[in-house]
Every structure is written in structure tokens, then in C-alpha cells.
Amino acid sequence: MDKPKSNFFAPFKGIKYMIQKPVTIRVPEEEREAQKRYRGFHTNDWEECIGCGTCADICPTDAINMEKVPDYDAPEGEKDERPVIDYGRCCFCGFCVDICTTGSLKMSKDYIYMDEDADTFLYIPDEEGLNKNYPKEGYERNEDTDLLDLERIAMRYTKSKKRKDSFLEYVKGFSKEEAKREAARCVECGICTDRCPAHMDIPEYINTIWDDNLEEGVEWMYETNPLPNICGRVCTHKCEDVCTISHRGEPIAIRWLKRYIVDNAPEDVYEEVVLSNVSKEGEGSIAIIGAGPAGLSAAYYLRTIGYDVDIYEKEELAGGVMRYGIPRYRLPDEAIDKDILFIEKIGVNIHRNTKVGKDIKFSKLREKHDVVFISTGFMEPRHLKIKGSDHPDVVAAMDFLPKVRDFVRDKKQMPEVAEKVVVIGGGDVAYDVGRSVARLQNIKYGKVDVTLTALEKKEDLPAGEDEIQEGKEEGLEIYPASGPVEIIIENDEIKGLKTAECIALFDDKGNFNPKLNKDNTEIHEASQVFISIGQAPNYDYLPDNIKEELEFKGPQIKINEKTHQTSMDWLFAGGDIVNGPDIINGVADGHNAAKAIDDYIRSNK
Amino acid sequence: MEQKKVIEKISNEYGIKKIKFKKIENQQFKVKINKKEIINFLTYLKNIGFWQLSLITAVDWIDNNQFEIVYNLVSWELEQHIIVKTFIPRENPRITSIINIWPVAKYYEWDVNEYFGVVFDGNPNNGKELFLENWDDKPPMRKDFDPLNYSKEKFPEKEYKNFRMKRKREVIE
Amino acid sequence: MKEVKLFHGPNHPGMHGNFSVHLTVDGDTVKKAKPNPGMLHRGFEKLMERRLWMSNIALIPRVCVPEPDINETVYSMAVEKIEELEVPERAKYLRVIILELARIAVHMMSIGGIGGPTGVYTAPNWALNERDMILDIFEKITGHRIYHMYIVPGGVRQDINEEILEFIENTINDIESRLKDYYEIIFESPIIHKRLKGTAPLTKEQALDWGVTGPGLRSTGVKYDVRKKFPYLVYDKLDFDIPIAEESDAYTRLYLKYLEVKQSIKIIRQVLSDIPKGKVRNKLMGTALKWKIKEGEAYGKVESSRGEFGYYIVSTGGRYPYRIQVRGASYPQGLYGIEAGLPGTRLEDVSIWLDTMGVCSPEVDR
């Protein structure tokens, strides 16, 4: 290596810089704008922010805290908290921006702040910025920096060609790998738990999939829902609608993950978990009328406290709407059986084929048990009164669906279906009818001709998105914004359904009162019409004196919301006859009623 | 030299047959060895070209009640990095010092001694202070030491007395 | 004569960082030296065990202030080895750019910094300007000047565009044009010659015994560079030399750094022309809050401006690292080296010794 030689004049060579322009910036006269990607002080759009707290979770320095906003009643899918950043701790890494589920949290180019009061360094980010100068946006999240996984793992379905004439379950369920990938997307914010009517511990059980600990997953589920097999298949998944990931991507498939746990937890583990929950604390006996979601849920939780529980079910099989309403291709009998089996295993007595009022007197129940809980649901069809609706080929959904299930289960006689069918209604039940009819038509005629007419506009259809999409794949045709006017009958035979354009669903006062434009009509050819415009309760099992004493609001029974009691303190009610409208609400209702009944019995001792 | 050949060489030349090597990547592999063998084995490795001691460290396997002592050696001629591990019990942890093979080990061992409480027989600095002056708790890198609790006990938390969370309405207006 | 105990601490103008040496001095000559770290101890290794794999990226740059990127790189490399995670080709080139720019910044600061202990105060001011220009590049690429948090397991956080590439090229051209000035004002300066030549000698045996790596070892004639012997990223595809010297004293060690800056510029030029297109980051499964790394351990190492720098990482397959040990490049010379090598040095040369050996306190004092 040649080393430099010492040179006496070398140090003087620096003098040339005396005549050059300085490279330094004259602060504060001269301002220096930060670079485009600069990670400066935060800004947060309070309108977009939902307070999920994911920023606080990723924060490496614990600088972000979620603080409750005073006097703020957060809407569904939002928490009443907003992030507060401690600039004494923040390291400006920007991970909070990378992971922000809504994209409300951003970073600005602003980087100078001075104050002698240290307290002002605790900053509530908003649009104004720390210096209240609405700073320019700096660092932006992009695809590479994003710390969320926005894409949902696609569920595998049986193709529509294969499933169109089969009542076998067509959703295949996640494999282990798929379930783990899907579970890994969850940020554990818990907004889903708040939204779920039953407040299921969703982040916790999703976590158990990620940690390969399904036993704990089953435990978490039975904390709040004794029907996980059923809900894992047909829940209306309100949780997914509010999932924080859905703000920028696709929501977590919470329902399918739930199904994954119950389908894959080993049988013995499952039994152990469920059976270990039972205590012997409670003393008393409870009668439950109706083995639907609410009844079963109430029975499970009452039994776990230790009470003797008897369920009276008028049908041959327990399950109510789950057994007789929902078609088999969505909810196979095995799933229902499994849930009910465990409820029976912990010691709940289910008296099948026992109609109260006929096979056993209501007064007898009152004598035998301390408390009676009624949860008989909405199992009767609601009738449509238009011209021609009394024709025998006009079939109500709730008359038809049980027959289809019986046909599939026991190979009983196939229900009558015509070659051309119209279904009135655009809800989930209408789709259940339409898709069941389509399957029967495929079996009988080898082709599908089902038309649905719904009052609602296309974007407001009450049916779930999956139903609409899958129905379309199976050949259902839907006519939204069409109100039924008349069923055309010639020579005692149905020729079709006349509908008119529906302009408005509600009147000025906000009451349901569809307004039809009679000038714009359409005729849907059909020789059979199904009506699925809602269900109604049937209270004929209640003695008249009790019916008189009960208070009603419309078709539903009015109860004290806190105590779940009707106007008689020993008579409790829940499920569709009180709240509605779906299974998970029934489960929640049953659970709450169980707690209320427990309180009542204890306080009466 | 290729990793395979290096491993072959070590297995053939060094007396113990049961040594199992595991590849981490092309130039890095690990081996577990009995505590009694450690001096002999490391001396042997130094003689075949693993001249540089990169690092001595420890891992606290609290569930197995063991400490793992890890030696990282590098050979520039063989272009290989070897991780030699040995396990010692967590109660009264002792192991022979290697300062006679590598003088620099004095400080690495001191470091482990201070943070884990492992005693290196032969190292003059056992129990003396290096990084932690006036330390009054259990060795801090042990898994059962909770730094959060420690700092909560020792240091006051900054209080923001004037902080008020604002109301949402103020922003909308 | 009576021996005097001296506390050579951070208050000394020639001392870099919060590090001190307890000296026992006889006259002007050091008789005994004891390194005294601990003033900067922040318990990083413990903190890292309690942070998510991703969150740690924000913590580790602090282990070495002037050259934070090596931390991010070794952490990422070790994690990638355990997880067997592929790094996209473009990201490897981008990492090389960052690492070499950081090397230039540190070496320039080190070359200029010699003005501190020797009193040539023009040089540090100039050198800080060069460093600042490189920090401007960092700000453009990563969004921050000092702690970049740019290199992450699986690649780098953001891609860069043509405009930034051009900016890098202009900047390194600019810096290169001024290298001659440093040559003149430092390496030809009679003061520097007088103070540095023959000062703080280091023999090959000493270097090997202590485990010194980097410019310190190379100045004794050992041609060892992690980039050549354990090629990482794309260093095996790049053409560059490893400057070495035969006789090691403070002057040669400093001059080697100067030659390394030239090599780094050469490397960056090649990268700028060769960099391929493509994606820059492979991510782990799911959201960052749930990232897990497979069970296993690995040691990731790079050639930092002071020598071999590495992280030893143990994972048990969970969301948090089980154990991380930082192997600072200046650990051997900064602790054992001081004890074994500093005695015999004259008191006024102590800071020259520490400066040219490359003792970086935060990486010793993790």
C-alpha cells in the first residue's frame, strides 16, 4: 500500500472553500421541506377512524393508547375510542400507518414542534396536525408496506353444475392450511365481538386456529354459543359485515373459521370440553317449550349451572327452524344432530313429539317446574292477500320447506313442484324456497325455471350476498322492485303472477306500506306460486287465561328486557317470539334468558 | 471448503461418533456437544482453522430448566461458521471457561455471567460488575425477570395531568 | 513516580459516544486500562424478546447510531435463514445500496472525526456535510434520516424510482469529487502524520487474539472481509477490492477507510447500473400482528464499517423472538482490546487509539 506523503502546504488547500457558497441552510429564515416519504407528525381522520386499536397493538414503543371519547355513542362497527400518541415515546417508524385498517391514520411532512410544557407532547391526532397547520401528507402506505393481509382465502364450493340437483352440503369447509392462512389475517380488534348478538369471543377462537389449539377454540365457543356447528354454517355473520379488515379489503371469513374448529376438533376433546362445563350449583327445574335456537341455548346454559331442564318439542326432531326451515344443502342434519347431542349429553331432557296443550297440559308444566320458558318461534307462514292467493297451488314457504327436508331425510314423497314457478319474496327464506324448487325441478324435469319477485330494489335485497350469487349460479331469476298484484287464474289453473313496479317501500311516516306503480306491470308465467313474505307465531298452546294476561307488541310478546320475564314472573320468553330475526339472535336471547332465570330462581330461594 | 467436507473432516478426526451436525445454510451449521467435551472440541476446532471466536452467548430454556451456552466460531480459510451448543442445568449453572483458548472470551463470558448468572470456572471476573452497576435483582436476561415490573417499581410513570380527551363533536363543528 | 487514576469518559472531546475507560497513568503513559461500559445500556436484547417480529425493526436500528442499517440487515438475514424466506433480487440490490451508503457515511465521519483528538477541526465540519448528503438520500428512500427502519425480513419496505437512483448517482459523484480534498487536508497534513504515524500500533497476533475484524484486522495484513468470505446479498456478483496494509498503526487504519470509501462508491455505481426490476418484499403469512417464525436458530452477519457484525437469533416458532444476541463489531477491541492493548499508549493518544480502532459504544452496550 502506498501511503500519502506529508506535505507542508496541504492544510492550506482548504482555503479555496472561503469563496464558495455555503451548503448549510439558514434556519429559521430558510425553510426546508421534508422529502415526500417523510415520517413526520401523525394526522388522523376522525370520521374514518373506527377506533379498532390496531395501531396501538403494533406500536413498538407503546406510544399509542386508545382513549375513550367522552359523550360519544359509537355506531355499530366502531368503537368509542381514538388513538392518543405520546411523542415522548413515539419513534416514527410508521408501522401504525402501515397497519391502519381504515387508512385514517397518516403521517405528515411536519417535523418541528417546540413547547415548554411537556404535557403538550401527548397528542390526539386529528386532521389539523400537531402544529394545527393542516400539514402536507408525508409517508404513505402502499402495497409493499401494508401490514395487513387483505385477501380472503376463497372457500371451495361444489360447482353449480354438480350441486344443482343435490341436497348435499356444497360448502366444503377450510383445510388446515387454508384455515390458518385465514386466521392469520385477523387483527384481534374485537369489533366483531361487540357486533355479534351473542358476543362470541371471535378473536380468541380465531387465535386458537393460528396457534393450533382447537380444544381451546371449542371452549371459547361454548362460552357464548352452544350451537357452533349450526352457526358455523348458516349464521347471518353480522360480525363479518363490521370486520375492520373489510374497510380496505375482504372481511375475515369468521363463520367458516368457526365451522373449521368444530369440524376439526377431535371428538373426544370436544366431549371433554363440553361436559366439563357442567356444575351442580343450581337447584330447580325449568320447562322450555320449543327446541329451536333460543330454547336449546337457554337449556344448555341452565343445565351448565346445574338446573334440571326439560324441553317440549311438538315435532319428531328437535331443532325448530334449523331443522325444518333451512334447506339441507346449507345445513345438513349431522351438524344439527351433533350440537343437540352434546346438549342432551350434559343432561337436558328433550321430549319430542310432545305438543303442549295437546300431549301435555300447560297447567301441568306450571305445576311440575319452577319456571317456564317459551321459545316457539315463527313457524307459521304469513299470508298474502291478493286476488287468487287462495288457489291450492299457491304454497307458503313454511309449509313447503319442512316437506323438502322430510323428503331428503327419509325419502318420503317428493313435494309437488311445477315446471314453471314464481316465488314471491326476496329474503333468505325466498331463496331457500327458490333453490330448493330448482333442485326438485332438476330432479323431476331436468331443467330450472324459477322466478323470484321482490319488493326491494336490487341493492336493498334482504337476502345475503352469497345467497343471491349462488342462486344466480343455480339458475334463479330475480325481479327486484316488483310488488305482487294478482295471481292470474284461468280455468282453475294458475297462469302466472302479475306484478307492478314498486316505487317506495315506506310511507311518509316510515311505516311499511309499499307503493306500487300500477301503470308499469309485468306478468311472470308460472303454474305454481310460492309465497315467502315472512313468518308468524302460533300461540295456540297457551291457555286463554295466560294469553289474556300477556302483553303483545304486534305478533311478538312484550317482555321486561332486563329480566326476560313476561307479565307473569314465572313465565319467560325468548327467541323470535320476542326479538328475532335469526339464529344467532335466538342463541343470544336464550343465553340471556338463562342468566335471568338463574337470577330469578336464586332470588326466590 | 464445502460444508459437507468440513463436517466429514470433523466427524472423522474428532473421536466422538455420536456428534450430529445440522445445516442452517451453506456456510453455517450447528452442533450440540456434551459440556465435558467442550474444551477439547473447541481446541480441536481452533486447530483446524476456526480461529475466530465471534460470540459466546446463552439461552435460558426455563421450561426445561436448562441454560444453553452457545459458541460461534468462524473459519476464514474453510469459509464456514459453526455454532457449538451445550446445555447445563439451570440450578447452580457452571461451565469451564475457555479463556485459555481465546483470551477475548474473558469478556464474552463476563457478559453471560452478568446477564444470566452462569459461572465460568477459571474466569477471574465472575460476579464482578461490567455493564450493570448497582444491579439489585436477578440476572436480567433470565426469562423469569420481568423488565416491565422492574421499571414500574423503580421509576415513576410520567403523568399527564392536564390531558383531556376531546369530544368528537369539536372536530365535526 | 506515583500512579494516577484517570476517568477518561464521555466528557472528553476525543471520545465518541457514552463510553468510558478507567486509566491508571504513570506520568504520560497508561499502565492499566479498564473499559467501563454500561452508561448506554438500554436492555435491547430483553426488549426484543417482548416485541413482535415486525415491531423489533423499529427498535434495532438504535443499537448502532451512525450505521443503523446493519442491524436491520442482520436481523432480517437471520430471520430469513430460520424461516427460509426468499428475498426478491431487487430488494437485495436495494439493501446493498443502503449498506454501502451507510458505510460511506460512517467512514467519512470517522475520517473527519480524527480532527477531534488531533485538533484539525476543518475536517469534521466537512465530513458532516458529506454525511448529511447521504442522509438526504436516506430521507428520500426511507422517509427518515437517522433510523431508517427500511430493511425488513423478506426484503425492503418500499421500492425506489428512477428519480431517486439518479439522485444517488449525483450525490456520490459529488462526494467523490471532494475526496481529493480530504486526501490533502488529512492524509497529507503534517499534523496528522506527526500524531498518527506509529501511534497505537496493532500486531497481527494481537488482532487475532482479540478477535478484531474489519479495517483493524485488514490493516495487519489479513485479507478477511465478510463480503468476500461469506458473501451475502449480491456481493458475490459485484466487483470490488479489499484494501489491506501490512503494518498497522492509527494512520494506516484511517487510510484504509479512505480507500474503502472509494470501493463503496464503485460498488454503488455497479448496483445502480445492474439493479433489476421486480418486487421488493415477500411477506409472511397474515397480518404483522400474527407473524410467526419457524422454530430454529441462526446467526446473521455482515461486514460493517468496524468489522463483522452479527445477530444470533433463536425462535421457538412463536410471535416473539425467544432470544436475540447482538454481536457488536467493536466488542473485541472495545472491551478486551482496551484491557490488553491500551497500556503503553501515551495519554494524549488514547482517544486516537479508541477512534481508529473503531469503538462504537452503543453496540457494545446493547
UniProtKB/TrEMBL annotation, chain C:
| Keywords tagged on the record | NAD, Oxidoreductase, Translocase, Transport
GO terms (molecular function) for this protein are: NAD binding; oxidoreductase activity, acting on NAD(P)H; quinone binding
Pfam families linked to this entry: Complex1_49kDa
Q: Which InterPro entries match?
A: NADH_Q_OxRdtase_suD (IPR001135), NADH_UbQ_OxRdtase_49kDa_CS (IPR014029), NDH1_su_D/H (IPR022885), NiFe-Hase_large (IPR029014)
Identify the EC number(s). Answer: 1.6.5.11
Note the superkingdom of the native organism.
Answer: Bacteria
Q: Where are the transmembrane segments?
A: none
Under the heading PROSITE patterns, the entry gives: COMPLEX1_49K
Tell me the ranges covered by the NADH-quinone oxidoreductase subunit D domain, including all copies: 119-283, 290-366
Q: Which family does it belong to?
A: Belongs to the complex I 49 kDa subunit family.
List the PANTHER family hit by this protein, alphabetically: NADH DEHYDROGENASE [UBIQUINONE] IRON-SULFUR PROTEIN 2, MITOCHONDRIAL, NADH-UBIQUINONE OXIDOREDUCTASE 49 KDA SUBUNIT
Protein name per UniProt: NADH-quinone oxidoreductase subunit D
